[in-house]
User: Fold this.
Amino acid sequence: MPAIPDIAVNWNSLWEKINSGDQHALARTISLIENEFPGYDEFLKKLGNPSGARIIGITGPPGAGKSTIADTLIGEWAGIGNKVAVICVDPSSPFHFGALLGDRLRMNQWYNHPSVFIRSLSSRGSLGGLNPHIIEIADLLKAAGYERILIETVGVGQNEVDIAGLAETTVVVLVPASGDDIQAMKSGILETADIFVINKSDLPQADELARYILTRTMSANPNGEEPPVIVKTIATEKQGIPELYVQINLHLEKFNDSNQKIDLLTEKAWRLILQKKMREVNKTQLKEKILKEERAGKFNLYQFISDI
Ligand SMILES: Nc1nc2c(ncn2[C@@H]2O[C@H](COP(=O)(O)OP(=O)(O)O)[C@@H](O)[C@H]2O)c(=O)[nH]1
Ligand SMILES: [Mg+2]
Assistant:
């Protein structure tokens, strides 16, 4: 995370710059939000919420081809004049430059495009696998005029479910060789995926994986809602990408007139409240207090948490 000079921030002038398309000002504002710089919550209250902006989540195991797919989707959207933002959330690692370099390589052609904004965020310190401020950052991007916001996360456990609570459309990317991954996958992800992509369909067993996904999702949903949408792609050759693009748009349209919108807002409010409440709880301080009470021979877990 870049160091932020300890000076007063002129939020109004930052906002003016963002509005004039200044991506440095946007990046700086994201850092200020990540660091909870004084005034950031007042700033967020003043942001508009343009109705045309949509959030799409793309998740799946490392190496499945998420960034390659993101690269092609940017092309589809930028091609029709949309402003596109891509946020890559890296797994909780103090070193997230590796992923950043990989993403840069994959989405290289877009880094200097005036209507495309790409940024990697770390997922450190979050309750789930997302960046703790991803909700606010996505809303900032919306307010800044980005019409399609793609959030790439590494899905290897819980994260996919988290992204589904934020994105209007969740795309889960799997590869034929990831059979073990999908067997290990919690059924939550099967329910929350709006679209499955079987990428690297040039590899054998793509059809088997498709059948497997179908069987598992259908058995998890015996009352027979619509079967999941499954799209086969070879992202490196842009094969299947036009169909994926169509399916994403179809899903976004369906979303527009459904109750899901309220569910999503509820989910966001719940998470932000949780985060605010947890802010005062510091694990190091907890440990110190516990140690002190334990040494004094008067520690009681339930008394302790009710005092907190
Ligand atoms: N054979 C094949 N390789 C692919 C395909 N899509 C992506 N790759 C390669 O898989 C590797 C990982 O891709 P990347 O997009 O970085 O995956 P991510 O970790 O999910 O973002 C890269 O070397 C890509 O070139 C595909 O459809 N077929
Ligand atoms: Mg990637």
